[in-house]
From TrEMBL:
This is Diaminopimelate decarboxylase. The modification N6-(pyridoxal phosphate)lysine is found at K67. Belongs to the Orn/Lys/Arg decarboxylase class-II family. LysA subfamily. Pathway: Amino-acid biosynthesis; L-lysine biosynthesis via DAP pathway; L-lysine from DL-2,6-diaminopimelate: step 1/1. Its EC number is 4.1.1.20. One of its GO terms (biological process) is lysine biosynthetic process via diaminopimelate. The active site is at C358. The gene is lysA. Its cofactor is pyridoxal 5'-phosphate. Keywords: Amino-acid biosynthesis, Decarboxylase, Lyase, Lysine biosynthesis, Pyridoxal phosphate. Signal peptide: none annotated. The keyword Magnesium does not apply. InterPro entries: Ala_racemase/Decarboxylase_C, DAP_deCOOHase_LysA, De-COase2_N, Orn/DAP/Arg_de-COase, PLP-binding_barrel. Residues 40-293 form the Orn/DAP/Arg decarboxylase 2 N-terminal domain.
Amino acid sequence: MENMIINDLTSENGHLTISGVDSVELVKKYGTPLYVFDVSKIRDQIKKYKTAFEQNNLKYQISYASKAFAVKAIYQIMQTENVHVDVVSGGELYTALAAGFPSNKISFHGNNKSFEELTMAVKNHVGVIMLDNFHEIELLARILKSEQQQIQVMLRLTPGISAHTHKYDQTGQTDSKFGFDVESGQAKKALEMVLNNPNMKMLGYHAHIGSQIFGTEGFKLLAQKMIKIAQNFQTDFNYWPKILNLGGGFGISYNEDDDPISPTEFISQIAAELRNSGEEIPEIWIEPGRSIVGPAGYTLYKVGSRKDIPNLSSYLSVDGGMGDNIRPALYQAKYEAVIANKMDQATTQTVHIAGKYCESGDILIDQQALPTTEPGDILAMLDTGAYGYSMAMNYNRNPRPAVVFVENGQDKLVVKRETYQDLISLDCDY
């Protein structure tokens, strides 16, 4: 049997295999478009983060940022890996709880949590609420008093650090919708309010500087600044944090131009910065999402129509598009793809990979080298595990794809494909 590795992809008999499962057989069984996750890659990445922390002798917690991909099955995987998760809505919280994930290992984020969402969090005894604004402090105070409950909280700060990434992915700078601004004194006022509320147990400080970040400089600056902020607040309030949460945003390689940092490199440099402060190092939390599930994901499509234009690149259309992966249209995100049933064939063309949605901007990949294709071939987009399904939509009334997990040669359906009946299930007659 022919068995080869192509750009870290395994091919058997010319077919892309994912954790020992033939992608062509997956398409026959589940149809297209289809999200496929290699669970072993998810577990391996979590292990790399844990090992890096332990090698640096840091107290730590890994909290999976589930906005990247939030279905019951992924929360169950995270439970088996003994990590925390963070949620950013009542819907994500409900899903995690429905999956049986322990509520005391859940962090609740968000810049506009509703009264109902906060009540839900309190009644289910979530591990920590990340306080984002003064309105939220007031709402939570009312709920805790009414429910006669106490809860652990952290303050989300905007420390004034901008990440080198897409402008929509920057969240740590002063001009941001997230968190309490440090420079203006908002953070100090918020800390005073929390410390004076007997129902709120202050755990520490959180900051997140952005997403898809490749360098370590921003994280090193963040570590320095968070320690400095903690020192200033200790002087003012005699309070030293139990936890410093440095957020997430660790980039992954979507294409050959991307050069992500390894967990070992990132954490060793952060550890060095923290030790240089000379202070007692709190427990360090990080919130990887994309870097855990992104590289583990594949999206499988069937090739359909083709448009050839003289002297220009051809358009090769597939049976999905911006409805199952909005990132190319939204962020100009770049991906790579292969023909899953022709992995042993040389490239002969460069084409635009177009989606089926009624928008001229529905281009999944601008320029992709491929072997000769024909209708019915299977195109596999790589590294689509983050923000594909979680941002999927029913534009043009297209049903959302199914999701399959594969591990050690076995496949398991974890999200059913939507049907046309599902699309109208909430519609009411006039």
